[in-house]
Amino acid sequence: xxxxxxxxxxxxxxxxxxxxxxxxxxxxxxxxxxxxxxxxxxxxxxxxxxxxxxxxxxxxxxxxxxxxxxxxxxxxxxxxxxxxxxxxxxxxxxxxxxxxxxxxxxxxxxxxxxxxxxxxxxxxxxxxxxxxxxxxxxxxxxxxxxxxxxxxxxxxxxxxxxxxxxxxxxxxxxxxxxxxxxxxxxxxxxxxxxxxxxxxxxxxxxxxxxxxxxxxxxxxxxxxxxxxxxxxxxxxxxxxxxxxxxxxxxxxxxxxxxxxxxxxxxxxxxxxxxxxxxxxxxxxxxxxxxxxxxxxxxxxxxxxxxxxxxxxxxxxxxxxxxxxxxxxx
Length: 329
Description:
The chain is of the alpha+beta class. The protein folds into 3 domains: 47-57 and 219-318, Efflux pump adaptor protein, beta barrel domain (Elongation Factor Tu (Ef-tu), domain 3), CATH 2.40.30.170; 61-91 and 185-204, CATH 2.40.50.100; 94-182. 36% of the residues lie in helices and 27% in strands. Strand 11 and strand 12 form a beta hairpin. Residues 315-329 have low confidence and may be disordered.
Protein backbone atom coordinates (compact mmCIF):
# COMPACT_ATOMS: atom_id res chain seq x y z
CA UNK A 1 0.00 0.00 0.00
CA UNK A 2 1.36 3.38 -1.02
CA UNK A 3 1.79 6.40 1.26
CA UNK A 4 -1.12 8.18 -0.45
CA UNK A 5 -3.45 5.27 0.22
CA UNK A 6 -2.53 5.38 3.93
CA UNK A 7 -3.26 9.15 4.29
CA UNK A 8 -6.83 9.05 2.96
CA UNK A 9 -8.21 6.54 5.53
CA UNK A 10 -6.47 8.41 8.36
CA UNK A 11 -7.99 11.75 7.27
CA UNK A 12 -11.42 10.12 7.04
CA UNK A 13 -11.07 8.73 10.56
CA UNK A 14 -10.04 12.12 11.95
CA UNK A 15 -13.03 13.76 10.25
CA UNK A 16 -15.40 11.20 11.78
CA UNK A 17 -13.89 11.81 15.20
CA UNK A 18 -14.32 15.61 14.91
CA UNK A 19 -17.92 15.17 13.75
CA UNK A 20 -18.66 12.92 16.72
CA UNK A 21 -17.18 15.44 19.17
CA UNK A 22 -19.21 18.30 17.65
CA UNK A 23 -22.39 16.19 17.79
CA UNK A 24 -21.84 15.37 21.46
CA UNK A 25 -21.26 19.01 22.39
CA UNK A 26 -24.30 20.18 20.43
CA UNK A 27 -26.54 17.85 22.41
CA UNK A 28 -25.65 19.53 25.71
CA UNK A 29 -28.38 21.77 27.12
CA UNK A 30 -27.44 25.45 27.27
CA UNK A 31 -27.94 26.76 30.81
CA UNK A 32 -30.46 29.61 30.96
CA UNK A 33 -28.98 33.11 31.25
CA UNK A 34 -29.32 34.58 34.69
CA UNK A 35 -30.94 38.03 34.83
CA UNK A 36 -28.69 40.89 35.87
CA UNK A 37 -31.33 41.98 38.39
CA UNK A 38 -34.44 40.22 39.61
CA UNK A 39 -37.68 41.88 38.47
CA UNK A 40 -39.88 43.60 41.01
CA UNK A 41 -42.74 41.68 42.59
CA UNK A 42 -46.15 43.27 43.05
CA UNK A 43 -46.94 43.88 46.75
CA UNK A 44 -50.69 43.50 46.11
CA UNK A 45 -52.84 40.45 45.45
CA UNK A 46 -54.80 42.24 42.73
CA UNK A 47 -53.06 44.96 40.81
CA UNK A 48 -52.37 46.79 37.56
CA UNK A 49 -48.79 46.98 36.34
CA UNK A 50 -47.46 49.88 34.36
CA UNK A 51 -44.28 51.61 33.32
CA UNK A 52 -43.69 55.00 34.88
CA UNK A 53 -41.31 57.78 33.99
CA UNK A 54 -40.05 60.31 36.53
CA UNK A 55 -40.68 63.98 35.82
CA UNK A 56 -40.66 67.29 37.66
CA UNK A 57 -43.66 68.42 39.67
CA UNK A 58 -44.26 71.17 37.13
CA UNK A 59 -43.57 68.73 34.30
CA UNK A 60 -40.39 69.29 32.33
CA UNK A 61 -40.40 72.87 31.01
CA UNK A 62 -38.70 73.29 27.63
CA UNK A 63 -37.28 76.79 27.37
CA UNK A 64 -36.84 78.47 23.96
CA UNK A 65 -36.52 81.97 22.61
CA UNK A 66 -39.14 84.12 20.90
CA UNK A 67 -36.47 85.97 18.89
CA UNK A 68 -33.66 84.14 17.06
CA UNK A 69 -30.02 85.13 17.28
CA UNK A 70 -26.52 84.34 18.47
CA UNK A 71 -26.28 83.41 22.14
CA UNK A 72 -24.18 86.02 23.91
CA UNK A 73 -24.07 84.70 27.48
CA UNK A 74 -25.34 81.81 29.61
CA UNK A 75 -26.19 82.71 33.19
CA UNK A 76 -26.97 79.25 34.63
CA UNK A 77 -25.52 75.77 34.88
CA UNK A 78 -27.10 72.36 35.25
CA UNK A 79 -28.28 71.86 38.83
CA UNK A 80 -28.70 75.55 39.62
CA UNK A 81 -31.82 76.57 41.51
CA UNK A 82 -33.28 79.77 40.09
CA UNK A 83 -36.09 82.10 41.09
CA UNK A 84 -38.89 83.24 38.81
CA UNK A 85 -37.60 86.04 36.59
CA UNK A 86 -33.94 85.10 36.97
CA UNK A 87 -31.95 85.43 33.67
CA UNK A 88 -31.13 82.17 31.89
CA UNK A 89 -29.35 83.28 28.71
CA UNK A 90 -28.87 86.41 26.61
CA UNK A 91 -29.24 86.75 22.82
CA UNK A 92 -26.92 89.25 21.09
CA UNK A 93 -28.82 92.58 21.17
CA UNK A 94 -26.44 94.91 19.26
CA UNK A 95 -28.73 95.23 16.25
CA UNK A 96 -31.68 96.10 18.48
CA UNK A 97 -29.56 98.57 20.48
CA UNK A 98 -28.69 100.42 17.28
CA UNK A 99 -32.34 100.48 16.29
CA UNK A 100 -33.17 101.79 19.77
CA UNK A 101 -30.95 104.84 19.20
CA UNK A 102 -32.78 105.57 15.95
CA UNK A 103 -36.17 105.29 17.68
CA UNK A 104 -35.02 107.57 20.50
CA UNK A 105 -33.88 110.20 17.95
CA UNK A 106 -37.24 109.90 16.15
CA UNK A 107 -39.05 110.56 19.42
CA UNK A 108 -36.95 113.67 20.11
CA UNK A 109 -37.64 114.89 16.57
CA UNK A 110 -41.38 114.25 16.98
CA UNK A 111 -41.49 116.18 20.26
CA UNK A 112 -39.65 119.09 18.63
CA UNK A 113 -42.24 119.07 15.86
CA UNK A 114 -44.97 119.36 18.50
CA UNK A 115 -43.27 122.42 20.01
CA UNK A 116 -43.00 123.93 16.54
CA UNK A 117 -46.66 123.20 15.81
CA UNK A 118 -47.73 124.73 19.11
CA UNK A 119 -45.80 127.92 18.36
CA UNK A 120 -47.29 128.14 14.86
CA UNK A 121 -50.77 127.67 16.25
CA UNK A 122 -50.27 130.47 18.75
CA UNK A 123 -49.05 132.77 15.96
CA UNK A 124 -51.90 132.04 13.56
CA UNK A 125 -54.46 132.14 16.39
CA UNK A 126 -53.16 135.57 17.49
CA UNK A 127 -53.37 136.92 13.94
CA UNK A 128 -56.88 135.59 13.56
CA UNK A 129 -57.93 137.06 16.92
CA UNK A 130 -56.46 140.42 15.85
CA UNK A 131 -58.49 140.75 12.67
CA UNK A 132 -61.58 139.31 14.29
CA UNK A 133 -61.44 141.92 17.04
CA UNK A 134 -61.27 144.84 14.59
CA UNK A 135 -64.23 147.20 15.17
CA UNK A 136 -64.02 148.85 11.79
CA UNK A 137 -64.87 146.27 9.17
CA UNK A 138 -63.47 148.52 6.48
CA UNK A 139 -59.95 148.11 7.89
CA UNK A 140 -59.91 144.34 7.26
CA UNK A 141 -61.42 142.55 4.32
CA UNK A 142 -63.66 139.52 4.74
CA UNK A 143 -61.24 137.50 2.62
CA UNK A 144 -58.35 138.30 4.95
CA UNK A 145 -60.37 137.25 7.97
CA UNK A 146 -61.25 133.90 6.35
CA UNK A 147 -57.64 133.23 5.37
CA UNK A 148 -56.39 133.84 8.91
CA UNK A 149 -59.15 131.66 10.38
CA UNK A 150 -58.30 128.81 8.03
CA UNK A 151 -54.60 129.26 8.76
CA UNK A 152 -55.30 128.91 12.50
CA UNK A 153 -57.41 125.78 11.91
CA UNK A 154 -54.65 124.28 9.72
CA UNK A 155 -52.08 125.00 12.43
CA UNK A 156 -54.34 123.30 14.98
CA UNK A 157 -54.62 120.20 12.73
CA UNK A 158 -50.83 120.12 12.29
CA UNK A 159 -50.46 120.20 16.07
CA UNK A 160 -52.79 117.22 16.43
CA UNK A 161 -50.80 115.36 13.75
CA UNK A 162 -47.49 116.21 15.49
CA UNK A 163 -48.80 114.90 18.80
CA UNK A 164 -49.94 111.69 17.09
CA UNK A 165 -46.45 111.35 15.62
CA UNK A 166 -45.04 111.59 19.15
CA UNK A 167 -47.36 108.82 20.29
CA UNK A 168 -46.30 106.64 17.34
CA UNK A 169 -42.60 107.30 17.94
CA UNK A 170 -42.98 106.49 21.65
CA UNK A 171 -44.79 103.24 20.74
CA UNK A 172 -42.01 102.24 18.32
CA UNK A 173 -39.43 102.99 20.99
CA UNK A 174 -41.35 100.89 23.50
CA UNK A 175 -41.58 98.02 20.98
CA UNK A 176 -37.83 98.06 20.46
CA UNK A 177 -37.23 98.15 24.22
CA UNK A 178 -39.60 95.18 24.59
CA UNK A 179 -37.67 93.26 21.91
CA UNK A 180 -34.41 93.92 23.75
CA UNK A 181 -36.00 92.67 26.96
CA UNK A 182 -37.21 89.53 25.14
CA UNK A 183 -33.64 88.79 24.09
CA UNK A 184 -32.91 88.15 27.78
CA UNK A 185 -34.66 84.84 28.47
CA UNK A 186 -35.79 84.46 32.08
CA UNK A 187 -37.05 81.63 34.27
CA UNK A 188 -40.86 81.46 34.33
CA UNK A 189 -41.08 79.95 37.83
CA UNK A 190 -38.97 78.94 40.82
CA UNK A 191 -37.28 75.79 39.56
CA UNK A 192 -34.06 73.85 38.96
CA UNK A 193 -32.00 73.69 35.77
CA UNK A 194 -32.15 70.15 34.37
CA UNK A 195 -30.37 70.63 31.04
CA UNK A 196 -28.42 73.35 29.20
CA UNK A 197 -28.21 72.54 25.49
CA UNK A 198 -26.93 75.88 24.17
CA UNK A 199 -23.51 77.53 24.32
CA UNK A 200 -22.29 81.10 23.79
CA UNK A 201 -21.72 81.72 20.08
CA UNK A 202 -24.33 79.20 18.94
CA UNK A 203 -27.41 80.24 17.00
CA UNK A 204 -30.64 79.93 18.95
CA UNK A 205 -33.66 79.13 16.80
CA UNK A 206 -37.27 79.90 17.59
CA UNK A 207 -40.19 77.48 17.59
CA UNK A 208 -40.67 74.04 19.12
CA UNK A 209 -37.30 72.25 19.04
CA UNK A 210 -36.68 68.52 19.40
CA UNK A 211 -33.97 69.41 21.90
CA UNK A 212 -34.90 72.45 24.01
CA UNK A 213 -32.32 75.16 24.60
CA UNK A 214 -32.77 74.79 28.37
CA UNK A 215 -34.92 72.37 30.36
CA UNK A 216 -36.30 73.36 33.76
CA UNK A 217 -38.41 71.74 36.45
CA UNK A 218 -39.47 71.99 40.07
CA UNK A 219 -37.89 69.02 41.84
CA UNK A 220 -39.02 69.73 45.39
CA UNK A 221 -41.38 66.78 44.96
CA UNK A 222 -41.09 64.41 42.02
CA UNK A 223 -43.93 63.12 39.89
CA UNK A 224 -44.13 59.83 38.07
CA UNK A 225 -46.26 59.47 34.92
CA UNK A 226 -47.65 55.92 34.70
CA UNK A 227 -48.91 54.39 31.45
CA UNK A 228 -51.89 52.07 32.04
CA UNK A 229 -52.95 49.95 29.09
CA UNK A 230 -56.39 50.92 27.80
CA UNK A 231 -57.62 47.35 28.37
CA UNK A 232 -56.88 47.83 32.11
CA UNK A 233 -58.07 51.42 32.37
CA UNK A 234 -61.52 50.41 33.67
CA UNK A 235 -59.88 48.64 36.61
CA UNK A 236 -58.03 51.72 37.82
CA UNK A 237 -59.19 53.32 41.09
CA UNK A 238 -57.59 56.51 42.35
CA UNK A 239 -58.04 55.77 46.05
CA UNK A 240 -56.05 52.53 46.10
CA UNK A 241 -52.40 52.08 46.98
CA UNK A 242 -49.55 52.34 44.50
CA UNK A 243 -45.86 51.48 44.77
CA UNK A 244 -42.96 52.28 42.45
CA UNK A 245 -39.85 50.08 42.23
CA UNK A 246 -36.47 51.18 41.00
CA UNK A 247 -35.35 49.25 37.94
CA UNK A 248 -32.16 47.36 38.65
CA UNK A 249 -32.83 47.04 42.38
CA UNK A 250 -36.24 45.76 43.45
CA UNK A 251 -35.40 46.45 47.09
CA UNK A 252 -35.64 50.21 46.45
CA UNK A 253 -39.26 51.30 46.36
CA UNK A 254 -41.48 54.23 47.31
CA UNK A 255 -45.12 54.65 48.25
CA UNK A 256 -46.92 56.84 45.73
CA UNK A 257 -49.52 59.54 46.29
CA UNK A 258 -52.22 60.01 43.69
CA UNK A 259 -52.18 63.43 42.00
CA UNK A 260 -54.46 63.29 38.97
CA UNK A 261 -55.58 61.38 35.91
CA UNK A 262 -55.13 62.91 32.48
CA UNK A 263 -58.52 61.95 31.01
CA UNK A 264 -57.34 61.50 27.45
CA UNK A 265 -56.12 58.12 26.24
CA UNK A 266 -52.98 58.63 24.15
CA UNK A 267 -50.86 56.36 21.91
CA UNK A 268 -48.13 54.56 23.78
CA UNK A 269 -44.75 56.23 23.23
CA UNK A 270 -42.54 54.43 25.75
CA UNK A 271 -41.58 51.16 24.03
CA UNK A 272 -39.54 48.32 25.51
CA UNK A 273 -38.30 46.94 22.19
CA UNK A 274 -39.86 43.51 22.70
CA UNK A 275 -40.82 41.71 19.48
CA UNK A 276 -44.23 40.87 20.96
CA UNK A 277 -45.01 44.45 21.99
CA UNK A 278 -47.95 46.15 20.31
CA UNK A 279 -46.95 49.56 19.05
CA UNK A 280 -50.56 50.63 18.42
CA UNK A 281 -51.50 50.32 22.10
CA UNK A 282 -53.16 53.32 23.70
CA UNK A 283 -52.64 54.15 27.35
CA UNK A 284 -54.27 56.11 30.15
CA UNK A 285 -51.73 58.32 31.92
CA UNK A 286 -51.96 58.62 35.70
CA UNK A 287 -49.80 61.01 37.70
CA UNK A 288 -48.47 60.12 41.15
CA UNK A 289 -46.02 61.92 43.39
CA UNK A 290 -43.38 60.83 45.89
CA UNK A 291 -40.74 62.41 48.08
CA UNK A 292 -37.62 63.37 46.18
CA UNK A 293 -35.40 61.89 48.89
CA UNK A 294 -37.26 58.57 49.04
CA UNK A 295 -35.34 57.07 46.11
CA UNK A 296 -32.06 57.85 44.29
CA UNK A 297 -33.80 58.58 40.98
CA UNK A 298 -33.45 61.22 38.29
CA UNK A 299 -35.88 62.97 36.00
CA UNK A 300 -36.49 60.88 32.89
CA UNK A 301 -35.76 57.56 34.64
CA UNK A 302 -38.21 54.68 34.17
CA UNK A 303 -39.70 52.75 37.09
CA UNK A 304 -41.98 49.75 37.54
CA UNK A 305 -45.29 50.73 39.13
CA UNK A 306 -47.96 48.51 40.65
CA UNK A 307 -51.40 49.91 41.42
CA UNK A 308 -53.74 48.01 43.73
CA UNK A 309 -57.18 47.10 42.40
CA UNK A 310 -60.25 45.88 44.31
CA UNK A 311 -60.54 42.10 44.50
CA UNK A 312 -64.20 42.13 43.47
CA UNK A 313 -63.16 43.12 39.95
CA UNK A 314 -62.02 39.56 39.36
CA UNK A 315 -65.53 38.22 39.95
CA UNK A 316 -66.93 40.95 37.72
CA UNK A 317 -64.59 39.89 34.93
CA UNK A 318 -65.47 36.23 35.39
CA UNK A 319 -69.18 37.05 35.36
CA UNK A 320 -68.85 39.02 32.14
CA UNK A 321 -66.95 36.17 30.51
CA UNK A 322 -69.64 33.70 31.60
CA UNK A 323 -72.35 35.94 30.14
CA UNK A 324 -70.59 36.01 26.79
CA UNK A 325 -70.25 32.20 26.66
CA UNK A 326 -73.76 31.54 27.95
CA UNK A 327 -72.45 29.86 31.08
CA UNK A 328 -70.68 27.14 29.08
CA UNK A 329 -67.23 25.91 30.14
